[in-house]
Amino acid sequence: MPGKRGARHDIDFTLRRVFRKHEFRPLQREVITAALNGEDVFLQAATSFGKSLCFQLPAIVDYGITIVISPLLALMNNQVASMRAAGIKVATINSTIPPSVKTTILEDLRCGHPLTRLLYVTPEYCELDHFRKILRVIHSQRELSRIAIDEAHCISEWGHDFRPSFKSLSFFKREFPDVPMMCLTATATARVREDIITTLALDPAKLKLFTMTTSRPNLHYEVRFKSDEEDHYSDFLAWLRAAHARRATNPSRADQLAARNQRADNVPGIIYTLFRRDCESLAARLRADGIGAKPYHAGLPHTERADALAGWVENREGYDVIVATTAFGMGIDKENVRFVVHWQIPKSFEGFYQEAGRAGRDGKASVCLLYYGREDRDRAANMMARDNARREPAFRESVGAGAAAQQAQVMGRAKSLQALVAYCENTAECRHETIAKYFGEQAKPPCEWACDWCKDAVGLVRRKEKGLASEEWCSTQREMGAYAVDEYD
Ligand SMILES: Nc1ncnc2c1ncn2[C@@H]1O[C@H](COP(=O)(O)OP(=O)(O)OP(=O)(O)O)[C@@H](O)[C@H]1O
To answer: Which ranges carry the Helicase ATP-binding domain (predicted)?
Structure first.
């Protein structure tokens, strides 16, 4: 059943009045206009580009309800809270909301003419019969305005964060072919993009595809080399202290920060580590050295995590650096993250790009350090092989499309890690360029000395030679099983 299109919307007015933004960023207007014209839209754009606005604004100016499908509770809850603060009728149904609230939301939906303008749900929730029934009622009343799929790369087995339940989102085009869809992601290779389009049964001939550069020119990418022989803690501490010292000698910066309710003695950042035990020991070490650091991982009590997050977001003293396992910070729109450090090589290229992208969301210069060691590389490869072996029985049982999907996933993960290793080992190319190429971009991104290669290519080669364990040594250690790791946590 066709929707009620054709109304004229003053999107500039809504941008200013509801979202409190002065102007659209490049291409936001085009994406929003396509959405309001009822087109299916695919938007790929850099981290912190402002993708959410592209489905939030149409949802407000248009008729009916927009269903937003999001993989992360933190992402949902955060967006819902900020929109509610702006007076928008927004709701979420997920495991964190009380039953009474859920009942009220469902009552609103069941009437077929919901007051809710945006509803955030998980892909798993979209699989439930009772929810599908409600969607049919809303659709029959011509009130199902559009479906927005955030972090759409989760649909593809070739993507780094594949979630099987995302596949079932193909239900939407099957049941409601006239309801437009929006897919949004920061991290899709050409292959992942194609996969998403096919899975969701979007018509490539009609789809409006917007692919923006993944380039983040204000991020300074640097690889620092390490080996098991040496503890890289002192290197990091020296770097952080130098950053503090630079701030202390710049009084005008202190005034600027004070005007924005930020502290001059705080250089906020995130350190990502693959191991929970590192989170706690590293945070304790930093605290002993006078740096306000807090651990954050899924094994900590909820209250401790909530306290760490709130203190960090509010720039409170003692909460300057969060030492976290992966995924921390997704959906948290903290603008002044001045550095993101990867304590060892992460599991995928996309994960690295996305996590590094939590830095510098205010557009100001920020640093992304990756500590790379060949022993860690071998541990990561070992872990991946073990994980694949663990899934081998299911793999053997599956046939046809299922088997092909499993295979794609294994290959996708291996390729992504290989590409990240190549990024770390490469001393012959700008880091921004390597990232752009990975995501299939043709144009050379700008880099005004914003990477270690552009800054000092000769020094980079020297540091690499000095800092890494030799391949011969690693190969012997590998044969002895030295890099066998049980599991990341
Ligand atoms: N036109 C605009 N003018 C100013 N700020 C904007 C504009 N559009 C979006 N923003 C701001 O940009 C920030 C990033 O937006 P958003 O969280 O949607 O990013 P994203 O593209 O989803 O990034 P990520 O993939 O990293 O989550 C937010 O603080 C948002 O309010």
So the answer is: 32-206
